[in-house]
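QA checklist item 7 of 12: single-chain prediction sanity check.
[x] sequence parsed
[x] length recorded as 177
[x] structure emitted
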Amino acid sequence: MSPNYVSAVLKKHEEEENAAAVTKIKHEEQENKTSKEVASFKLFSEGKNTIEVAIDLKLSEEEVTQFYKGFLKLKGLYKFGIIYEKHGHHVPRLLKLCIEAEKEGVDIEQLVKLAKLADGNNPLGLSQLEKLRQWHLSQLHEMETERRKMETQLHRMKEEKEKYENVLFLLKSEIQP
């Protein structure tokens, strides 16, 4: 056998061993990831939060986030995870809004209708709110005008009362010597 042939066979064998080693490492990494994922699912189901799971299992933020998304998906809450990821910073205010609405006996559908009315992209809703606001302002203005009229009338009546009291006093003084 020629040295070139032996060298080629050795090189091919070495490449096959390297490929097998890489495959084995990938398989072990996948098994390790799977076992960490399963362990994280168990901890999440016990009520642990992402920080506690990351610490307990020594996971990176990326890993624990990926595992938590998987956990939510398994629980049928994947859409919540997507919404939370996109709008998580609003959750405390949304919860407060829901709690306040519940205290006032307002249901979610009513909140949605109100939000649609107040939506800046809904000119019809804004015009309806503006019409209501204008109507309330006009009612207040009418009430204020009526109040002023009544105050003026009351003032006239008081003046008239004083006038009649003076006339009565004069009449009484004429009758009594």
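[x] summary fact logged: The first helix runs from residue 3 to 45.
[ ] second reviewer sign-off
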